[in-house]
Amino acid sequence: MPGQLLDGNLLSRKIRAEIAARAAIVTAKGVRPGLAVIVLGDNPASQVYVRNKVKACEDVGFHSVLERYSAELGEEELLARIATLNADPSIHGILVQLPLPAHIASERVLEAIAPQKDVDGFHIANAGALMVGHPEFKPCTPYGCMKMLESIEYPVRGARAVIVGASNIVGKPMAMLLLQAGATVTICNSKTRDLAHHTKDADILVVATGKPKMISGDMIKNGAVVIDVGINRLPDGKLCGDVDFDTAKYIAGWITPVPGGVGPMTITMLLMNTLEAAEKAVKP
Question: What's the pTM value of the predicted model, to 2 decimals?
Answer without folding.
Answer: 0.95
